[in-house]
Amino acid sequence: MVERITGGITAPAGFEAAGVACGIKATGLDLALIVSTPPARAAGIFTTNLAVAAPVVVTREHLRRSHGTTSSIVINSGCANACTGDQGLALARAMATDTARTIGCSAEQVLVSSTGVIGVQLDGEKLRHGITHAAAALSRDGHEAAAEAIMTTDPWAKEAAVRATTSAGVFHIGGMAKGAGMIEPNMATMLGFLTTDADVGPDLLQRALAEAADDTFNAITVDGETSTNDMVLLLAGGRSGVRIDETGYPAFVDALHTVCRELALAVVTGGEGATKLITVTVTGARTTAEAKQTARAIANSPLVKTAVHGGDPNWGRLVAVAGRAGVAFDLTHARVRIGEVELFGDGQVFADREPAAAEHLKGAKVAIGVDVGVGGTGTATVWTCDLSAEYVHINADYRT
Amino acid sequence: MVERITGGITAPAGFEAAGVACGIKATGLDLALIVSTPPARAAGIFTTNLAVAAPVVVTREHLRRSHGTTSSIVINSGCANACTGDQGLALARAMATDTARTIGCSAEQVLVSSTGVIGVQLDGEKLRHGITHAAAALSRDGHEAAAEAIMTTDPWAKEAAVRATTSAGVFHIGGMAKGAGMIEPNMATMLGFLTTDADVGPDLLQRALAEAADDTFNAITVDGETSTNDMVLLLAGGRSGVRIDETGYPAFVDALHTVCRELALAVVTGGEGATKLITVTVTGARTTAEAKQTARAIANSPLVKTAVHGGDPNWGRLVAVAGRAGVAFDLTHARVRIGEVELFGDGQVFADREPAAAEHLKGAKVAIGVDVGVGGTGTATVWTCDLSAEYVHINADYRT
Predict the structure, then answer these.
(1) Cis peptide before A180 (omega within 30 of 0)
(2) A399, closest residue in chain B (CA to CA)
(3) What mean pLDDT is predicted for residues B134-150?
(4) Nearest C-alpha of chain A: how many angstroms from B398?
(5) Which CATH code for domain A277-396?
(6) Torsion of CA B142, B143, B149, B155, to 10 degrees
(7) In the predicted model, is pLDDT for residue B400 greater than 70?
(8) Closest Cβ–Cβ partner in A82, A301, A349 for B119
(9) In chain B, which residues have their Cβ closer than 8 Å to the Cβ of A309?
(10) Which of A349, B134, B226, B384 has the fewest CB atoms in 10 Å of its CB?
(11) Where are the domains of chain A?
(12) What is the ipTM of this complex?
C-alpha cells in the first residue's frame, strides 16, 4: 500500500534539510542542503546535453569515487554554473569541499547541483556563508524551505512523499523537484531529489531510479529543451531497517514511481506560463519508441499547444503533427480524440462533436489521444502544458 | 547577370494569372489561377508529411500522368482540403476538371493546391464559380492578385522575379509564395509557385528545383511544423526561346536560386508574429548534415526565439541547444557570436561584450553564429524568425 504523506524530502527517517538565502538570487531562498545520517547509498541520472554543467561533472565524479555513498546534497538556484570553464569547475568542487568541512564528511560524499542563468560564475564567498547558515538550520522541518530554495521561474515549490507498506516492511520516500522551463528530459530532466529510509543496494537503487524516471521525469516536456544541468538524485539511508531485495523491488519501484510521477506532473503543471496540464496518449504505433516519438512531437508542437491554450479543438493540427513525426502513420485509419470525444477516425470528420471537445478544453486537465492507424501495439503517454503568451514574456525577459 | 524585376509569377513570357474572391474565406481573395501558353514543363517537390492533403495527391498524380506537362495551376486559400477523405479527393479532382474545362486543356494538365484550415470540405460550387471568374480575369497584370489570393495568416503577399542574362540567352523567372505558420520544410515547404520562360527539359527542371530549394525553402523554419499541403511547383514555358542544357544549367539554377531565396526569406520575415529575421549559421561541425541539424535545433528553440524577441543576448541558451542537438559538440572549443560579437569561445565568457550584442539584437535582422567546436568543415545556414506573444495569439485563435 502506498499512501501520500507530507514531509517532502525529509519524510524518510534519517534526513534533514534546510533552505536559506545567500544572495545569489536578488531575493528569496537560493541554497538548499540535504543531509543523510548515516551516509546514504546514492543513485543518479543526468542530462544528455553535451554542454554539461560543472556541478553535473563533479556530482558524477563524486558518485564514482565514493562508490555511491553520500552524506549530503547541496544545491543553489539563480546560477547554473554552466559554460563557466575551469573556474566554474573549481567553484563546483569548492561547493562540495565547503559543505564537507561544515557537516563533517569527505568532499566526495557531497553531491552538488545548480540551476539558473548559464554562463555566469558563482560567488564562492556567498556560497560558503550560505552553506554555514544552512548547516545550522538543518531540521526535519526544513523540507519546505529546501524545496523553495531550488526554484527559479517555478510558480510554486514541488514536494511529494509517500509511506509504503509492503511485505518487506514499512518505508518512506520523499522528494522535491525544480521546473519550469528548458524541460525535455532525455536521460534525466531538471533537478529532482529523492530520499528514502529503505535499505537498498547500489545496483537495485540505480535500476529503480532509471525505471521510475522512465515514464515520469522522462515523459514530460515543457518546451522541448534539455538543460545543461538536469539531474535526478536518489539517496537511500536505510533508517527504516527495511531491506529491499529482488522480492521487495517491485513494491519499492511502485512507491518511488508514485513520488516521481507526482513531482514530474507538478513540473509540467508549473511550466512557464502554463495554464493547462495536457496528457498526450498515442496508440496503435508499431513500437513503444515510435509511439513515444509521436507523443513527444505532439507535446512539443507550438501549434497544438497554442490551440489548447485557446480552447480550440483543432484536431487537424494533431493529425498534421502525427504525420510529420518521422514514424509510421496511416491517415486512412488514424483516430483523434480530445477528452472522450472522437473528432476524426477512419478518414471521417465529426465536426458536430467539436463543441463537446471545446467544453473539455475549458478544464485545467486536457487529454489528447491519437491512434496513428498502423495497427501496432505501441503506446506511450507524454505530459506537457499549453503555450501561452506568458511563456514568451517570461523567456523574452528572463535575464532583465 | 541576374537582375531583380517586378512582375512576380507573370514576369516570364507566356504566363497569365488572376486572383479572385470566391467566398471560401470570409473576406478577401481566395482563388488564384496561373495559365501557361503553350503548356509548360513542370517540376514539383512535396511535403514529407504522411498525412498528405488531397491536392498534393492529385497534383503528384497529374504530374505523373501528363509526364510533367502543365497548362495551369489553380490554388485556393481558406481551406487546406486535408484530412477530408474520399470526398476531399473528389473535390480536388473536380477543381482540376473545372479548370481544364474552363481554359480548354485536359484535367491532368492542371495542378491543384490548397491552404488553410485542415479537416473542412471545400465548397465545390464556390470553387467552380471562382474558376470561371478567374479565367475571365487572366492577364499579365494578375500576378499581384494571385499572390494575394494564396495568403492565409501572411501579413503581406510574397512575390519575386528576375531577368537572367546568360551565355545561353536572356530568360525570366518569377514566383510567389505563401507562409506563414506550420513552416518547417523538409522535402518542400509551404506553397511556392515558380514560372520561367526558359526552355528546360524535365530532368534538368526537377534537378534545378530540388537544388535551388535545398538551401532556400528547405532552410527556413517558423515553428518546426511541416504542413500537410506543402508544395513548390516550377513551370517552364519556353517562350524566351532560350534552351537550357547542361552548359546553361548553372546559370539557370543561379537565377532560380535568387527567386527562391527571396521568397523563402519573405516567408520567414512574414512568419506568424515575427518581428525579426534570424540567420543561424553553424560552423565547425563534422558534416553539413550535422551542421544543419544543429542550426535547425537553434532556429526552432523557443528559448532562443524568445530571447531574440526580448533583445537578450542570452548566448547560454545557444550553447545549451547546440549541446542537445543530437550531434557532435565540444564545449571547450565551441564559439558563439551574436552579430559580429563573440560572446563565448574556448570556454571563456565575454560578458563585457553583451551590450554590443544587445545593440545588434535591436535590429530587424539578427545574425547568430555557433561553432560547435569539433573542428570539422560542416557548415549550414537556416533562417527563422523570433517567437512573440503575437504568435500565440494568432494560433490560439486561428479558427475563431
Answers:
(1) yes
(2) B312
(3) 96
(4) 8
(5) 3.10.20.340
(6) -140
(7) no
(8) A349
(9) 392, 396
(10) A349
(11) 2-269, 277-396
(12) 0.74
